[in-house]
């Protein structure tokens, strides 16, 4: 298993969802990107409740691929936002932004045809 996501689970999704892997990955990337942008927007407005909701939405997408480290970061962000702990939420968001490019790249590579 990849350190950032469960490639076995990713490979099972086309059979479970009845669609091709590149379409699934594109959907997940779109959902995660949107949720991360919503988190950023919420934090810029100081709306920790909205940040918690966006983190929860991102967790749902990350669960599809069992992206454990990302799930942990999102859980921490959601929990700190629900506690109204702005400093911890901002720190968790910074960690999320640091981790996101590697996961995004792994997803893109996993969805690419071999060769």
Short description:
With 115 residues, the protein is mainly alpha-helical.
Q: Topology, pairings included?
A:
Elements: H1 7-17, H2 21-45, H3 48-64, H4 68-82, H5 86-111
Please describe what this structure looks like.
The chain contains 5 helices and no strands. It is an all-alpha fold and 115 residues long. The protein has one domain: Up-down Bundle (Four Helix Bundle (Hemerythrin (Met), subunit A)). Helix 2 (21-45) runs antiparallel to helix 3 (48-64). The protein is elongated. The relative contact order is 0.17.
What structural class is derived from the secondary structure elements?
Answer: mainly alpha
Major sheet characteristics: none
In N-to-C order, the SSE pattern is HHHHH
Count of DSSP helices? 5
Mean pLDDT: 89
Please state roughly what percent of the residues sit in beta strands, choosing from under 5%, 5-15%, 15-25%, 25-35%, 35-45% or over 45%.
under 5%
CATH class placement: Mainly Alpha
- Give the % helix: over 70%
Any idea what the radius of gyration is? 14 Å
Note the overall shape.
elongated
As for the CATH topology, it is: Four Helix Bundle (Hemerythrin (Met), subunit A)
In the predicted model, the low-confidence regions spanning at least 5 consecutive residues are none
- The termini sit apart by 21 Å
- Total beta-strand segments: 0
Q: What keyword list fits this structure?
A:
mainly alpha; 5 helices
